[in-house]
Write a structure and sequence with these properties.
eight-stranded mixed sheet; 12 strands; signal; transmembrane; transmembrane helix; about 15% strand; His_PPase_superfam; about 35% helix; Histidine_acid_phosphatase; Rossmann fold; about 475 residues
Length: about 475
């Protein structure tokens, strides 16, 4: 992703105005530099470690110590109730989150004197232990070459596969045949010639990109002119955006929908905690893959703000949602109507020399919008519960079985050959009960008729109510 001149609005957001108070923030961050997907398992490189660590240092200077400090956030020692960090079960993403946290909360109180006068030296100069919670979404994403391989959403996979039969895809596939054929000598140590096509645009780009960063020599490197490298990247961008988002079939953006739901859930807890005076849930941080960026970009119409949002974000890119107010906070947390949200993004490693810029969301023009408007628009795209996810994805087994139509093992109700409608489980149960009762009464009548039995009424006792019973006489 290459941002152009209109992105140089970063300075306008470098520091919040004195009248502003930042109340909380939620961040989605990409991993640092890694080894190529085509040579799995992928690993975070030393460069990648340095990138996310530097980003952590920047956000420390912004939200913990600087002018945009989050109100009430602990500065030097981590308070775990204020911080929530998540990442998929993925080596690169988990390690990236850990590296970022080392920059955000560096070692503190490396030594301690005990009551008996002895000194204890903390391991690693007081390294702060911060847990990283794991999430199912995107598990193993950095070892997968195809964007939706890390998703278990059935409808999202079907939707993404539809891209391969689209006119856009086939047009680029046919137009770029010769272009990719020229790249075969560069990558034939990893890919078969038949696989070097637009169909594999991203993994081909990824291999070449890693080589350009790390390799001292590249086979047939004369092929890789600046124009060719730009074209390789641009084609990879088009390929991955097509798989991540489609305006007329947005289920393929399920990862962006889940991010919207997680963001809303966390920010609501930030507001509730502020109203309760508990000073918790200040800063939510999630690490994830580029697919979620692209899906979310499409869902909130960020390409309207800048066309470069069609592209794959660079390593260590970050986007942040700041919850802030311009109201007086000296007497407590402001009213909901006084809350605003601002969206910031930075392509690549964030630092004090290269800060994030603000962009308008939902196709608008405002740098900030009210919390009420933000939450309303986000709720339109958010997937916040397992039931919502199962319904949208069309999944009916495992955790989704309880939400399937028949409520049994998760398989869909079988339709009749005529395509008729189905009765609900509740109605079916009632009808079944009546059928059973009719059968029992029928058997009872037959038993009485054939056995010479009759219904008789007992005499009335002084304290008893009339009772019917089955009475019989010997033959």
């Amino acid at each position: 992703m290459k941002f152009t001149g209109t992105l140089a609005l970063a300075s306008a957001v470098a520091s919040a105005e004195a009248a502003e108070t930042v109340l909380g923030a939620y961040m989605f961050h990409r991993h640092g530099d890694r080894t190529p997907k085509s040579l799995a398992p992928t690993n975070l490189t030393a460069l990648g470690y340095e990138q996310v660590y530097t980003s952590g240092q920047y956000y420390r200077s912004r939200y913990l110590t600087g002018d945009s400090k989050i109100k009430g956030m602990n500065q030097d020692t981590v308070r775990l109730t204020q911080l929530a960090v998540t990442a998929p079960v993925d080596n690169v993403l988990q390690n990236s989150a850990q590296g970022f946290l080392q920059g955000l909360y560096p070692p503190y109180q490396s030594a301690q004197t005990l009551r008996n006068g002895s000194d204890v030296q903390a391991p690693m100069d007081g390294y702060q232990l911060i847990p990283i919670n794991t999430v199912d979404t995107g598990a193993g994403s950095e070892d997968n070459g195809w964007l939706q391989d890390a998703s278990s959403c059935a409808n999202a996979k079907t939707s993404s596969n539809a891209f391969f039969s689209s006119a856009e895809y086939n047009d680029l596939l046919n137009k770029t045949t010769d272009f990719y054929k020229a790249l075969v000598p560069v990558v034939n140590g990893t890919f078969d010639e038949k696989d070097v096509t637009f169909k594999n645009a991203y993994v081909v780009y990824d291999l070449i990109n890693v080589a350009e960063i790390h390799n001292s020599s590249i086979p047939s490197s004369d092929v890789l002119t600046n124009d060719t490298l730009y074209q390789i990247r641009t084609l990879a961008d088009a390929h991955e955006y097509g798989l991540a988002y489609n305006a007329s079939d947005n289920i393929r953006a399920i990862s962006g929908m889940q991010l919207a739901g997680e963001l809303l859930k966390y920010m609501n807890t930030t507001i509730k905690s502020g109203q309760d005076g508990t000073s918790a849930n200040k800063f939510g941080i999630q690490f994830g893959a580029y697919a979620t960026f692209l899906s979310f970009f499409g869902l909130v119409d960020l390409p309207h703000a800048n066309e470069t949002f069609y592209g794959v974000p660079d390593y260590a890119s970050s986007m942040v949602f700041e919850l802030f107010t311009t109201a007086d906070t000296s007497n407590g947390f402001p009213a909901t109507d006084d809350l605003q949200v601002r969206f910031l993004f930075h392509n690549g490693t964030t630092s004090n020399a290269s800060e994030p810029a603000v962009y308008p969301l939902f196709g608008g023009n405002d740098d900030a919008i009210s919390w009420n408007k933000f939450s309303s628009n986000m709720n339109k795209i958010a997937v916040s519960t397992t039931e919502q996810w199962c319904t949208k994805c069309g999944n009916t087994t495992g955790k989704c079985a309880q939400y399937s139509q028949d409520g049994t093992d998760g398989s869909a109700n079988a339709s009749s050959s005529g395509g008729g409608s189905h009765m609900s489980a509740a109605i079916g149960g009632v009808i079944g009960a009546f059928v059973t009762l009719a059968v029992v009464l029928g058997l009872l009548a037959a038993f009485m008729l054939l056995g010479g039995f009759r219904l008789a009424k007992k005499g009335r006792a002084s304290t008893a109510s009339p009772v019917s019973e089955v009475a019989g006489s010997k033959a």
